[in-house]
Amino acid sequence: MAILLVEDDVMLARALSESLSDAGYVVDQVGHCRAALQHLQTQVYEAMLLDLGLPDGDGCHLLQQLRERGQPLPVLAISARGAIDTRVAVLDSGADDYLAKPFSVQELLLRLQSVLRRSQTAGERSLVVGKLRLHLQHGLLEQEGQRLRLTPREAEMLALLMEKPGQIITRQEIRQRLYGESASVDSNVIDVLMHGLRRKLSPGTLTTVRGVGWSLPCP
Ligand code: CA
Question: Which of 108, 134, 179, 208 is the most interior residue, by most CB within 10 Å?
Answer without folding.
Answer: 134
